[in-house]
C-alpha cells in the first residue's frame, strides 16, 4: 500500500516503466538480505502497520547527524488513519506492477523530525537496479520534471554501495545498501516537501547515511 501522498502520477509511472526497461528486521547477527526483507514485507498487514518493522532509530540517526528536532513515529499531523509502515511487492505483487516486473519488495516507514515528515523507503530487488522502482516516489518528493527524475535515479543506480546521492531538490537522498547474498538494495529518504523542508541538503544526506548504517 503506497502512502496517499505518494500515489504515482501517470507521468511518474511512465518514468518508472522506462527506467525498468533500460529487509528484514536486521541486527548485528542477521545482515540485510533480499529473502529477509521479503519475509518482513510479506508478514505485514495489507492495510499497513502501526510501527516500523525495520530497526530504524530516527532519534539516534538525528543525533548522529547533529539534528536536535523532536522525533517520533508517524507523520507530524497524525490523523489516526495513516499507517506508520506499508509494504509492497513480494506476495502482494500483481502482474504489471513495478515489483512484479522487477521482482522484489519495498518497506516504507514514516517518521517525523521537527515540523517535517521523514519517509524512509527500503527496497530490495533480485536484479539491478532497485532504485528504479522508486522513480514515482522520487518524482513526488522532489517535485521534479521527468528528465530530472530520470537523471537522479540513474545517478543513484550507478552509485557505489554506501555512497549517498542527494537530489537537486535537497530533500531526498539515496544510499545503495549492501546485501547478504544476491540482489540489489537501496535506502531512499525524503524529508518534508521540496522547497519547504527545514533541513539543509547536507543534513538530509547525513541523516540518510546514519539511517543506512543502522541496517548494514
Could you give a short description of this structure?
The protein is α+β, with helices and mostly antiparallel strands.
Q: Strands, helices and their partners?
A:
Elements: H1 10-21, H2 34-42, H3 58-64, E1 71-73, E2 85-89, H4 98-101, E3 104-113, E4 116-125, H5 135-142, H6 146-158, E5 164-166, E6 172-177, E7 184-191, H7 201-213
Antiparallel strand pairs: 1-3, 2-3, 3-4, 4-7, 5-6, 6-7
Helix pairs in contact: 1-5, 1-6, 3-7, 5-6
What does this structure look like?
This protein is of the alpha+beta class. The protein has seven helices and seven strands, in the order αααββαββααβββα. Strands 1, 2, 3, 4, 5, 6 and 7 form a seven-stranded antiparallel β-sheet that branches. A hairpin with a 5-residue loop joins β5 and β6. α1 crosses α5, α1 runs parallel beside α6 and α3 crosses α7. The longest helix has 13 residues. The two termini are 25 Å apart. The N terminus is likely disordered.
Strand content: 15-25%
Can you give the mean pLDDT?
Answer: 88
Structural class: alpha+beta
CA-based gyration radius? 15 Å
Q: Given the C-alpha coordinates, what overall shape results?
A: globular
Number of helices: 7
Helix content: 25-40%
Rounded to the nearest angstrom, the distance between the terminal CA atoms is 25 Å
Largest sheet: 7 strands, antiparallel
The number of E-state strands comes to 7
Low-confidence spans: pLDDT under 50, at least 5 residues? 1-29
Order of helices and strands: HHHEEHEEHHEEEH
Amino acid at each position: 500500500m503506497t502512502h496517499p501522498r505518494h500515489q504515482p502520477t501517470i507521468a511518474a509511472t511512465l518514468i518508472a516503466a522506462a527506467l525498468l526497461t533500460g529487509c528484514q528486521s536486521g541486527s548485528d547477527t542477521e545482515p540485510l538480505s533480499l529473502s529477509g526483507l521479503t519475509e518482513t514485507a510479506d508478514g505485514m498487514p495489507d492495510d499497513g502497520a502501526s510501527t516500523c518493522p525495520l530497526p530504524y532509530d530516527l532519534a539516534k540517526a538525528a543525533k548522529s547527524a547533529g539534528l536536535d528536532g523532536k522525533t517520533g513515529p508517524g507523520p507530524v499531523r497524525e490523523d489516526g488513519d495513516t499507517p506508520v509502515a506499508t509494504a509492497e511487492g513480494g506476495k502482494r505483487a500483481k502482474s504489471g506492477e513495478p515489483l512484479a516486473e522487477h521482482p522484489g519488495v519495498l518497506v516504507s516507514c514514516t517518521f517525523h523530525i521537527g515540523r517535517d515528515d521523514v519517509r524512509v523507503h527500503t527496497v530490495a530487488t533480485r536484479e539491478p537496479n532497485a532504485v528504479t522502482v522508486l522513480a514515482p516516489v522520487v518524482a513526488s518528493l522532489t517535485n521534479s520534471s521527468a528528465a530530472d527524475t530520470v537523471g537522479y535515479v540513474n545517478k543513484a543506480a550507478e552509485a557505489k554501495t554506501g555512497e549517498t546521492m542527494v537530489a537537486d531538490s535537497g530533500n531526498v537522498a539515496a544510499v545503495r545498501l549492501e546485501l547478504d547474498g544476491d540482489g540489489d538494495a537501496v535506502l531512499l529518504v525524503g524529508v518534508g516537501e521540496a522547497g519547504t523542508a527545514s533541513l539543509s541538503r547536507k543534513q538530509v544526506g547525513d541523516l540518510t547515511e546514519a539511517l543506512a548504517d543502522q541496517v548494514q
